[in-house]
Amino acid sequence: MTIFPGRRLKTNGVRRKSHLKRKEAWAGFLFALPAVLMFAAFSGYPILRTLYLSFFDYNMLTPPKFKGLENYVSLFQDPLFWQSVRATAVYILGTYVPTIILALCLALLLNRKFRLRGLFRTLYFTPVVMSMVVVAVIWKLLFFYQGPLNMLLGYFSIQPIQWLSSTTFAPVALAVMTTWKSVGYFTVLYLAGLQGIPTEYREAGMIDGATGWQLFRFITLPLLKPITVFVVAMSLLFGVQEFTAQYVMTGGGPNGVTRVLALLVYETGFGFMKMGRATAISIILFVILVAITMLQRRWLTATDY
Amino acid sequence: MKRIEMKFGLKNLLVYALLVGGALVVAFPFFYAISTSLKASYDIFKIPMEWIPREIHWENYVVPFQTRPLGRNFLNSVLVSTAVTVLNVITCTMAGYSFAKFRYYGRDMMFLGVLATLMVPIQVILVPLFVLVKALGWLNSYAGLIIPAGTSAFGVFLMRQYFQTVPLEIMEAARIDGCGELRIFAQVVMPLVRPALSALVIFIFMNNWNSFLWPLLVVSRDEMMTLPLGIAAFESTYSTNFGQLMAVSLISTLPVLIAFLLLQRQFIQGMALSGLKS
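YS: structure for the whole thing
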């Protein structure tokens, strides 16, 4: 990529041309200006301000009071914070491990020519385009004590489960719902990856007498590694940011077992008006996001084979 | 020969069985939501379950719009999502064009700055952004819902990638013909990046239609709520009125669903693209 091509220009400019070139440069600058100003106002400034406020006591009513690292120190000593970290980790693992495995399986099933293939793909993808609020509202009903899931379990003589008010099952319910919503997205990504693999590789393997499993394990799966890296990074990013699912379905309960970090930011800042503390959690969230992005880069560059 | 054929048939059958099983699991919540949306409250948890309602109650699709300002919420969503999409198309295409096709001092720094905001989701900047929007007097207003969402780093990045494929000669030729820069942009270059534009429109519109956290902060008055907020508010006030709740949820999904069914290819490609390119 040519990141800094500007240098070259200064030397090859003929004097007569430079007036026109300057005019062109101004035009280019003006084209970028609206977006850049909006980024500066609604992303750049707020992120710097988040960092700044994270060292202060702030409740929006009185001016911020400098506290040094106190917000961070008290967070790290707060069991509620660690519970929230745990809730986020449980949510991510519980949701995206099954999601990725299912998506890979579905992509393998769909990656062959047969009738109705488009129909299946459309159906699997439909939940992806729905809003999380609607999905959560529907699943809340599905998980209702007298609701259909317990009814279906009853057909197998399993006792009804208090899905949303049990500390064991509320995280399970959230994971099931999010898996349902996101599996189609990752399926499509894997499908794109599979379709990028030239058929010659598998054919060569078949000629050498590899079994179906060996073809998958030693040819398809390694070639899918860039997609897998991307999918894992995406799911970490999605998982860390999720807010709506918990807000609508469980409200962070019962007993805070589903109060994920994004929800903790919201509650701390806008429920308890401890905005300095909320920004400190935001900064921790941001550090996690940056770490994920850098790890993804690392994995990707480590996959040259 | 015959055995191979049979094996092939069996394998296909297994594939179909698995796919159909998966499809049933995916479809069940839709089926149940539709079924419930047509039932009266007293029929919903009847034992044995009426999977297909015996009495049909269409009024579930009407009454919620009378008890809460959901019609207004729907219009708000249409207005806000459309405005956000238009703003994004303008800002992202212009910036993408600039970053791809012009050379000027500070360009690469600005582009890197924009890219860096890809890592800054709303959850991270919630507090200062809220304080800023409040100071601007934009709480409970369309401006507060629309303007902070008016550009996107992903959009700029996507458009820049596409504009890089447009040959410089086209612009040069237009300049020699005496075309102004704005006209070159709008009439010469823009028509060449239409595929990327449709991906951008779908991506932005859908994200905004489904957006929840930011509107939740900006809006507290019922009549300024967008549809997801309206549904969440309906749910917390009438949490046991499942029939109406399902009806409202289904209606709110309809526009995106119809768009998706009509433009499937663009949706799926656009979403896959949005991932794979970065």
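YS: worth flagging: Residues 15-53 of chain A form the longest helix (39 residues).
IM: good catch. Also The longest strand of chain A covers residues 56-57.
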